[in-house]
Design a protein that fits this description.
With 321 residues, the chain is an alpha+beta fold. The protein has ten helices and 18 strands. A six-stranded mixed β-sheet has the order 2-1-3-4-18-5, with helices on both faces. Strands 7-6-17-14-9-10 form a six-stranded antiparallel β-sheet. Strands 13-12-11-8-15-16 form a six-stranded antiparallel β-sheet, with helices on both faces. The longest helix has 16 residues.
């Protein structure tokens, strides 16, 4: 493992703040960040996201500045903002911090980082860089999950619901049901790993890097993720709309793993492509931590060979489901 990034004694913070994340006020978050840094004597550079397409650019700027000055690149926002900064930090080996402002906050919760801004700032200012696992799909980092097919479409359409009804958990659940009622296609995929190949017919392939999310839906393979060195996948067998809605309800009750139409497995690296005889697609839409983008086939999912250096207290404890 490479050495941890060296932080200056008064390590400066380079924060990328998403004004549109979560239910709280971005102005309040900004004021809290500025006040905490002043009290701790820590230099602060705060970059505010004003256009979605600027997020990767701001993330790269924050990481480059943190590397040059022995500081920490910090994401203050939801999964998309956290993913963008983490992706840049992972590739550069930069110290990375999180001030969670999203709806579910799976990444911060599994690493014991509290949601209230004052508490997460304290965690950041008193923590040290510690190696944590990230996943990759075609070299794009993900911290929580990556998917193609129906689940990726659900995430994309969920954003319209959030814009209309707010960023609440019941809104996300309602958006999922609305997507299911529209219907969905079945994919025929070959999944190759360790010299073996299996064919999957499924409406969605979900790959996770977050033990808490697996625990909440009741899939045991999340234990392999928690132990480290593995990702876990879920594939649903072909089924109709009503049966699919039933599976969503089972997931909400933490009983998805017991369903007969659910296949799950743990792995370190797999390659996914369209099976022979199935419609061949050069590019497909893939969601990484909720952000949907086009990627070339085949898709290669793997545990990142590089650690993400997350700044957190040594005694931080994961939140359980």
């Amino acid at each position: 493992m490479p050495p941890a990034p060296a932080l200056a004694p008064d390590a400066p913070l380079f924060v990328v703040l998403n004004r549109g994340s979560g239910r709280g006020s971005a102005d309040e978050a900004r004021q809290a960040i500025e006040a905490a840094c002043r009290a701790a004597g820590r230099p602060l550079t705060l970059r505010t996201i004003d256009r979605a397409h600027r997020v990767p650019e701001l993330a790269r700027e924050a990481v480059a500045s943190a590397l040059a000055q022995g500081g920490i690149a910090v994401a203050a926002g939801g999964d998309g903002t956290i993913n963008a900064v983490a992706h840049a930090a992972l590739r550069a080996g930069c110290a990375f911090g999180v001030l969670p402002q999203g709806t579910f906050n799976y990444f911060s919760r599994v690493h014991g980082i509290p949601a209230p801004i004052e508490e997460s700032l304290q965690s950041l200012l008193t923590g040290t860089p510690q190696p944590v696992q990230a996943g990759e799909v075609n070299d794009r980092a993900f911290l929580v999950n990556a998917s193609l097919g129906l689940y990726a479409r659900m995430l994309e359409e969920r954003e319209d619901f959030k814009a209309r009804f707010g960023r609440r958990r019941w809104v996300a659940f309602g958006a999922a049901l609305a997507t299911l009622l529209k219907g969905f296609r079945t994919w025929t995929l070959t999944v190759s790993a360790g010299g073996g190949t299996q064919v999957l017919r499924t409406p969605t392939l979900f790959v996770g890097n977050n033990a808490l999310q697996f625990e909440q839906v009741g899939v045991e393979e999340g234990q392999a993720v928690e132990e480290g060195g593995a990702l876990a996948a879920i594939a649903l067998e072909p089924l109709g709309r009503l049966a699919m809605i039933g599976l969503v309800l089972r997931a909400a009750m933490g009983r998805l793993g017991n369903a007969s139409k659910v296949r799950s497995f743990a792995f370190r690296e797999i390659e996914v492509q369209a099976a022979a005889g199935a419609p061949q697609r050069r590019r497909v839409r893939v969601a990484t931590d909720g952000e949907v983008q086009w990627m070339d086939m085949p898709l290669r999912f793997r545990v990142s060979p590089r650690p993400l250096w997350l700044v957190k207290p040594l005694d931080a404890k994961a939140e359980r489901a």
